[in-house]
Specification:
The complex is a heterotrimer of chains A (252), B (293) and C (360). Chain A is of the alpha/beta class. Chain A has helices spanning 42-49, 72-77, 95-102, 111-116, 121-138, 154-167, 184-201, 212-218, 236-240, 243-250, and strands at 4-13, 16-26, 31-35, 57-62, 65-66, 80-82, 172-176, 204-209, 221-226, 229-234. Chain A contains 10 helices and 10 strands. The longest helix of chain A has 18 residues, at 121-138. The termini of chain A are far apart. In chain B, 72% of the residues lie in helices and 3% in strands. With 293 residues, chain B is mainly alpha-helical. Chain B has one domain (14-219). In chain B, helix 2 (38-55) packs antiparallel against helix 3. Chain C has a single domain (2-359), classed as ABC transporter involved in vitamin B12 uptake, BtuC (Orthogonal Bundle). Chain C has helices at residues 2-9, 11-36, 41-66, 74-91, 99-125, 130-149, 194-212, 215-225, 227-232, 237-260, 273-286, 291-307, 315-330, 333-352, and strands at 151-156, 159-164, 176-180. Chain C has a 3-stranded antiparallel sheet. In chain C, a hairpin with a 2-residue loop joins strand 1 and strand 2 (159-164). In chain C, helix 1 crosses helix 2, helix 4 (74-91) packs across helix 10 (237-260) and helix 5 runs antiparallel to helix 10. Classes of the chains: A alpha/beta (252), B mainly alpha (293), C mainly alpha (360). Chains B and C meet through helix 4, helix 9 and helix 11 of B and helix 6, helix 11 and helix 13 of C. Chain A: It comes from Agathobaculum butyriciproducens. Chain A: Keywords: ATP-binding, Nucleotide-binding, Transport. Chain A: Residues 4-252 form the ABC transporter domain.
Chain lengths: 252, 293, 360
């Protein structure tokens, strides 16, 4: 059985059908791309997968468990984490605290322990620090752990967002245009990091990307959206040679 | 018959709230700030008219004109000196500054006119309208307040909807930067908005003091808050919303006083506001803006 | 010792030490001044109110600075705490003869009542956003004031008697009215002292700083900085919003007891919209999220009208002008540029900083 099963997913905003009849199957450990032109409904699909929007119809199952109607924070607890197209960091918190916040449900202690700083407070905070630093090291961010997140340069902010998402220990990681605004060098570096992360944390990755060349480099399987509908799917090779896809991207 | 009497006085009070709320909503729409000094401009309007008629012996209409002129100028000056430098600042900074301006106006009034209440002579004279063989009395102030409120609302809707300046106002309220790029003078537009809002506050002040003739430096505070509530009630930024909110608030307040408890009337008004906002979080006629993810 | 040094070097540690340091040093100086007779009786009379306002400012900072929601009704919780405290001390007058202990118990009860009020207010209010939320907190503050204003509560051998709007109970022999409608409470036994006020500040600091520096506090700040992102990493935003709001209300309640137990008469009108605004001004001027800033702002601004007393009638006018001037300065292009430069410097440093860990 596939890890993520999306069946005939659709959503309407007023009269507008933003996504229609979207079906996807993602196997555990896969690295899958969701591509398509601007306004194709990619981010809307992510928003449905993470509970930000409630789909009008269709189903989403993660390891057989229904995700429809669950709140975003509940879906996260079930093992789906994400990043955002327009970076959403906790801008006033330090880089380290951003990741520690991601560990919120991984390393826990009670409200009373929060208020009194007694019991397992010290031990758990130390665990959090260590775990968070380990994640920051993966993304080469350990040197800026004490910086305010808002003061990081753009590329590092994107990486921090991925580190924070990974801190929630997800089975499925959704990356919304992780390379947006990066130069070619940074992009290549990021793609390598994603590859490393996937192997090291055993996480399944679904990523939205604009740049076809880029996704075809690392993704094993692609879904192409256009006008909210699935235009094509298959290996990068199959998809790139599909005339429909070429037409959607280049116009007629 | 007492029901109808209460209804009329509710609409009368509501009309005054609505005039203040209209000014509030205009200013909020464009400056996106809770202008807590608005209520104190009402008070200044009241004192201006009072001084003109009582000390200088001017006729009532000249007192009203003086109040409108002074308050309009005051509104523009306040905006230029206190709010304009903060246009890029966080909204909380502007809020506190507005509170500072409110303290300033109240204490300046306290120094000039002392805390002793002044008895305001109504600007509207003449016999009350008697209906149903004297069972129902409608005072002239009530009629003038209702008429003024209706005229002002229609005028404002036409002005913002049809005139060039009104269009500029809507543009600035939507997006200051884009409006500027379109060649709209943002500063002038904001000044005009404050001028209109404060001018309306002056009219409301005169009517308020005519209907409830005690004038003190703190006279404007509570009506200011209530009118703000009315604006939120109707959906802040919406002109018909401010009108409906004001009228409803006035009616609820008078009915609560008449049928439930005078002391709890404010609590009831605020409780209704809370219920309305829980059902319609953007007020009765407010636009819903959701965050894009 | 080394541990302490590294703690003091971290920003978090520095802020904590600064907060406690300010309070303790101020306490010692004031006590010395009182012993030396260097403090006027007017200022002496302000000591307990200052402590109460400091606690109010710290607790409101939790809502406005840490949670990031504007509250215009904080005095409502102070009111609940004030009257709950008065009733508790009156009821326990015989049971606990020791005054400081009675005050402490009253504060705990007051905190509980204010927390309950916080839940009642917070559940509906926190569903709203921005200015709508602000106006509803204002509305709740006024509602609380109005209800307390028509409350009648008396104590006799049969226990507590309670009614709203009109007093519709008769007290037995030796019975005593505690809350008497709009007249409020009179003949309060003054239990609050400067020392008890400082102890309350220290207790508040201990809990509020612990709260902020914990996973709970981080979750609350995450919700403040980006609600959608907080949701996406598994934080129940409504839960943490309410939690911060209720903790904030509880401490406001304790401040209410401290404040009320300093005056012989207390009325509901004291805890009105203007008091809420006053405390908000402390928080904004002290800096959002800056706890020691709140302490200093609350102290100085409570003292300011007293220090300006020589200017007699003009003092409140000058207070208003100072307030406007401070806000204008705080947001002047000069200061904004200074802050931007600092951020730019850190950004440049971050650009260069590699993966290597700096120091320990």
């Amino acid at each position: 059985m596939a890890m993520l099963e999306v069946t005939s997913l659709g959503i309407s905003f007023g009269g507008l059908r933003a996504v229609d009849e979207l079906s996807m199957k993602i196997e555990k450990g896969g690295l899958v791309g969701l591509i398509g032109p601007n306004g194709a409904g990619k981010t809307t699909a992510f928003n449905m997968l993470t509970g930000v929007y409630r789909p009008t119809d269709g189903g989403i199952r993660l390891d057989g468990q229904n995700l429809i109607g669950k709140k975003p924070h509940e879906i996260c607890k079930l093992g789906v984490a994400r990043t955002f197209q327009n970076i959403r960091l906790f801008s006033q918190l330090s880089v380290l605290d951003n990741v520690k916040t991601g560990l919120h449900n991984q390393i826990t202690y009670s409200f009373a322990e929060s208020m009194f700083h007694l019991g397992s407070y010290r031990k758990k905070e130390k665990q959090m620090d260590e775990k968070a630093m380990e994640l920051l090291r993966v993304f080469d961010l350990d040197g800026v752990a004490d910086y305010k997140a808002a003061n990081l340069p753009y590329g590092k902010q994107r990486k921090l967002e991925i580190a924070r998402a990974l801190a929630t220990n997800p089975k499925l990681l959704l990356l919304d245009e992780p390379a947006a605004g990066m130069n070619p060098n940074e992009t290549e570096e990021l793609m390598e990091t994603i590859e490393i992360v996937r192997k090291r944390f055993g996480v399944t990755v679904l990523l939205i990307e604009h740049d076809m060349k880029l996704v075809s480099g690392i993704c094993e399987y692609l879904y192409v959206l256009n006008f909210g509908r699935l235009l094509a799917e298959g290996t990068p090779k199959e998809v790139l040679s599909n005339p429909e896809v070429v037409k959607a991207y280049l116009g007629e | 018959m007492s029901f109808l009497n209460h209804l009329i006085s509710g609409i009368s009070l509501g009309s005054i709230y609505a005039i203040i709320a209209l000014g509030y909503t205009m200013v909020y729409g464009i400056a996106k700030m809770l202008n807590f000094a608005h209520g104190d401009v009402i008070m200044v309007g009241g004192y201006m008219c009072f001084c003109a008629t009582t000390y200088l012996g001017w006729p009532a209409w000249m007192g009203v004109v003086l109040a409108v002129i002074v308050c309009t100028a005051l509104g523009v000056v306040i905006e230029r000196l206190a709010y304009k430098p903060l246009r890029m600042a966080p909204s909380l900074a502007v809020l506190i500054t507005a509170i500072g301006v409110s303290y300033f106006l109240q204490n300046a009034a306290l120094l000039i006119w002392s805390s002793n209440p002044k008895t305001f002579t109504s600007v509207v004279t003449g016999e009350a309208l008697s209906l149903f063989g004297g069972q129902m009395q409608i005072s002239k102030v009530t009629l003038v307040a209702i008429a003024a409120c209706l005229v002002i609302m229609v005028a404002l809707m036409l002005f913002t909807g049809k005139s060039k300046v009104g269009t500029a106002m809507r543009a600035v309220s939507e997006d200051k930067g884009a409006a500027q790029l379109m060649g709209i003078n943002v500063n002038t537009t904001i000044s005009i908005t404050f001028a209109i809002g404060s001018g309306l506050a002056a009219i409301a002040g005169v009517l308020l003091c005519s209907a409830y003739p005690t004038l003190m430096p703190t006279t404007g505070s509570l009506p200011g808050i209530k009118a703000f509530t009315a604006a939120v009630f109707g959906g802040i930024g919406s002109i018909p919303g401010a009108f409906i909110g004001g009228i409803l608030l006035g009616i609820i307040e008078i009915f609560a006083k008449a049928y439930i408890s005078t002391q709890l009337s404010d609590a009831i008004v605020f409780a209704v506001l809370i219920v309305v906002l829980l059902v319609k979080p953007d007020g009765l006629l407010g636009k819903h803006v959701s965050e894009k993810v | 010792m080394n541990k302490l040094k590294s703690y003091a070097a971290s920003k978090r540690g520095r802020d904590t030490l600064l907060c406690f340091g300010i309070v303790i040093i101020a306490y010692i100086i004031v006590q010395a001044a009182i012993a030396g007779g260097g403090i006027s009786s007017q200022i002496k009379g302000l000591l307990v109110p200052i402590c109460a306002y400091v606690v109010m400012a710290i607790s409101l900072n939790l809502t406005v600075g840490i949670l990031g929601e504007l509250s215009l009704g904080h005095a409502g919780f102070m009111s609940v705490g004030a009257f709950a405290g008065i009733v508790t001390t009156t009821c326990l007058a015989d049971a606990i003869p020791l005054a400081p202990l009675r005050l402490a118990v009253a504060m705990v009860v007051a905190g509980l009542f204010a927390a309950i009020a916080g839940v009642i207010v917070g559940v509906p209010v926190l569903r709203l956003k921005g200015d709508y939320l602000a106006i509803v907190t204002l509305a709740f503050g006024e509602i609380i004031k109005n209800i307390v204003n028509v409350m009648y509560l008396g104590l006799d051998d049969a226990g507590l008697h309670f009614s709203l709007v009109n007093q519709n109970f008769q007290l037995g022999d030796g019975g005593k009215m505690i809350i008497n409608g709009p007249i409020g409470v009179s003949g309060v036994t003054k239990l609050s002292t400067f020392t008890s006020g400082v102890v309350l500040i220290l207790v508040t600091l201990f809990f509020v700083l612990n709260f902020v520096n914990s996973r709970t506090g981080r979750a609350v700040m995450a919700v403040r900085d980006n609600k959608i992102a907080a949701d996406s990493i598994g934080i129940s935003t409504s839960h943490y919003k309410l939690l911060a709001f209720v903790v904030s209300a509880a401490f406001a309640g304790m401040a209410g007891t401290l404040y009320a137990m300093n005056f012989s008469t207390v009325t509901a009108a004291k805890f009105d919209f203007n008091t809420s605004i006053l405390v908000l001004v402390f928080v904004v001027l002290g800096g959002l999220g800056n706890i020691w800033g709140s302490i200093i702002a609350a102290t100085l601004l409570t003292l300011l009208p007293e220090l300006l007393r020589g200017l007699s009638n003009y003092r409140m006018l000058i207070y208003a002008i100072l307030l406007i001037a401070m806000m204008l300065f705080n947001n002047s292009s000069f200061k904004v540029r200074l802050l931007e430069k600092r951020a730019m410097r850190q950004m440049e440093k971050a650009e260069k900083a590699g993966g290597k860990k700096e120091g320990a």
